Amino acid sequence: MTNQKAVQEAPVMMNGVNVTGVIDTIKAIQGDTGLAKFQFRANNKWIDGGHNQSQIKGFYGCRLEDATRTAPFVLDADEPPVLLGQDAGPNPVEFILHGLASCLTTSMVYHAAARGIAIKAIDSSLEGNLDLRGFLGISDEGRKGYQGIRVQMRVKSDADTETLRELAMFSPVYDVVSGSVPVDVTIETY
User: Fold this and answer.
1) CA distance 26 to 48
2) Which of 57, 66, 128, 58 lies closest to 91 in space, CA to CA?
3) For residue 127, what are the β-bridge partners?
4) Residue 1, pLDDT above cutoff 80
5) pLDDT digits (tens, 9 = 90+) for 122-149
6) Cα–Cα distance between 45 and 56 in angstroms, integer?
7) Which residues pair with 38 in a beta bridge?
8) How many whole angstroms separate alpha carbon 81 and alpha carbon 62?
9) Of the candidates 171, 131, 128, which has an alpha carbon nearest to the alpha carbon of residue 148?
10) Residue 190: in which H helix or E strand, if any?
11) Distances 157 to 7, 28, 38, 47 between C-alpha atoms, Å
């Protein structure tokens, strides 16, 4: 009997996602909306030229400061030589493409799992067009950032493309990039 009970209590897994955990999380947040409040953080330090480095470790969620990460993730950013950098890492706008691609993918996989939709494979290609005149202050004609981003996702699944697109649209990064978010920048000297 013990082995049978253990099998019954094993979490339901789909697409590598603990669906039982997702359902339990949804129920917990429905019962206490304060559990849904998260704060993610990054600390950045300039190194030289276009090279700077971010460290990401702590975050707050489910009414607790996370203590599971023992070491920070370290991310280097720089510019390619054509933009006068040393190419010590992707440039910041390339990180935006990575963040968008990974969040669209994760969102699709998690939401598909919760709906019982199997995903066998996903790959994506992203392109963003940027006109340096805005960044350089040469012209007010265009944005300083991307003028547009194109995402091409290829998904191996029995689900139709509209359903898969709907699942990807739950992406928080897609929401930030496509709708913008207020950003408060303060500067102090030391």
Assistant:
1) 45
2) 128
3) 150
4) no
5) 999 999 999 999 999 999 888 999 999 9
6) 12
7) 61
8) 43
9) 128
10) none
11) 28, 30, 31, 44
